[in-house]
Design brief:
By secondary structure, this protein is α/β, with parallel strands linked by helices. It has helices at residues 36-49, 63-75, 98-109, 145-161, 174-180, 202-210, 242-251, 255-266, 278-283, 292-299; strands at residues 12-14, 20-22, 26-27, 53-55, 85-90, 114-119, 164-170, 190-194, 214-218, 269-270. The strands form two sheets. The chain has an eight-stranded parallel sheet with strand order 3-4-5-6-7-8-9-10. The protein has a two-stranded antiparallel sheet with strand order 1-2. The structure holds NADP nicotinamide-adenine-dinucleotide phosphate. NADP nicotinamide-adenine-dinucleotide phosphate binds at residues 27-29, 31, 55, 120, 170-171, 192, 218-226, 254, 256-257, 271-277, 280-281, 308.
Length: 333
């Protein structure tokens, strides 16, 4: 049995509402490599190890199995529903039918309501599960404020109905946020974005904090086993950077734990996925913090190492994946 970490000693992050949530949640994307059964077994172990936050998504294809694990934990009295902070996401092919998608996630996850419901990507461009990097959907379109706000309004209605507690956004850029934030009645509580030591997105991070939106960092370890379609020859292995190796050696731990300590001390929520190391990933934020000097060293490791480039979401006429990220400060159409 994995080590147990008392959830009370896990540091908390304060959401804009004032609610406190754990600074580490568990990711549940098996990266097309880990089966739904193995992911859900890890979730079962993680609950018993002290995790209270889980990052799910309809498109990860494992909500049904994870829901059974949640139900077992409730039935066995391990936790009550209110003890868990369950996050999930509407997939791109359900932007016109958000309530139906949310109802299905609630049913599959057996969770009665969702704590944080994300719009997984800010456009409805769909790709088939497990597709390769060159596949393109002829129906894909560039970002549209109207389309996004239609999806967002449906999320706002779900808050009003009590089906979700908070709205989250994901894979956004500053120009897109500038366009949509003034139109929202209920502000998003969090934004999920790719964050790891060689991809720190400091400008977007600061923008979110300034706008009272809590950053939630995905791929905090640099996703060493990400899907084939997200692996490019130019990618950097974050944990192999000499500075990370040296800091890990000084603390006598795996560099993955240094990455998670850094994320926590920077102020984000991180959502590492693990089937083998989840207990140490939660424990590491409760002990042996990085020094100011180590934090400053890691701040210098930015290498523009975006791993989820998003090629499969490109529309006809787009140049390349850079168009998805509005790098010149305007929304690319
Ligand atoms: N919003 C979005 O669009 C979006 C996109 C991508 C991901 N996400 C979310 O973010 C989560 C995390 O991303 P990710 O799973 O791609 O990457 P990640 O958490 O950076 O990396 C996971 C990998 O790191 C290994 N690992 C974890 N802890 C370790 C440790 N202490 N020592 C050594 N190896 C360790 C795991 O292997 P072991 O299993 O062997 O420990 C696993 O292969 C996902 O599961 C998903 O929930 C969201």
């Amino acid at each position: 049995m994995a080590e147990v970490i008392n959830p009370a000693i896990v540091p908390k992050v304060t959401l804009p509402s004032g609610e406190q949530v754990p600074c580490v949640g568990m990711g549940t994307f098996g990266s097309d490599r880990v089966s739904a059964e193995d992911v859900s077994a890890a979730v079962a172990g993680a609950i018993r190890s002290g995790y209270r936050m889980f990052d799910c998504a309809a498109c990860y294809g494992n909500e049904h199995e994870i829901g059974q694990v949640f139900k077992d934990a409730f039935d066995e009295g391990v936790v009550e529903r209110k003890d868990l902070f369950i996050m999930t996401k509407v997939w791109n092919d359900m932007h016109r039918r958000v309530e139906e998608a949310c109802d299905k996630s609630i049913k599959d996850l057996q969770c009665d309501y969702v704590d944080m419901y994300y719009i997984h990507w800010p456009f409805p461009n769909y790709h088939a599960p497990g597709c390769d990097v060159d596949s393109r959907n002829p129906d894909s379109k560039p970002f549209s404020v109207e389309e996004f706000m239609d999806t967002y309004r449906q999320c706002e209605a779900l808050v009003e109905k009590g089906k979700i507690r908070y709205i989250g956004i994901s894979n956004m850029t500053i120009p897109k946020l500038e366009a949509v934030l003034p139109l929202m009645k209920i502000k998003p509580a969090t934004c999920e974005l790719e964050l790891h030591v060689c991809f720190q997105q400091q400008e977007l991070y600061d923008y979110l904090v300034e706008h009272n939106i809590q950053p939630v960092g995905y791929m905090p370890i640099g996703s060493p086993r990400r899907p084939e379609r997200d692996i490019c020859p130019e990618d950097v292995a974050d944990l192999e950077v000499p500075e990370m190796q040296a800091i890990a050696k000084a603390h006598g731990v795996h560099p993955a734990l240094i990455a998670l300590k850094w994320a926590h001390q920077r102020g984000e929520i991180s959502i590492p996925f693990s089937v083998h190391n989840y207990a140490s990933n939660l424990k590491c934020v409760t002990e042996d913090p990085l020094t100011d000097e180590e934090m400053a060293t890691i701040a210098t490791l930015e290498k523009g190492n975006r791993l989820v480039k998003g090629q499969v979401f490109l529309w006809h006429g787009a140049n390349d994946w850079h168009d998805l990220w509005d790098e010149d400060g305007v929304i690319v159409k």
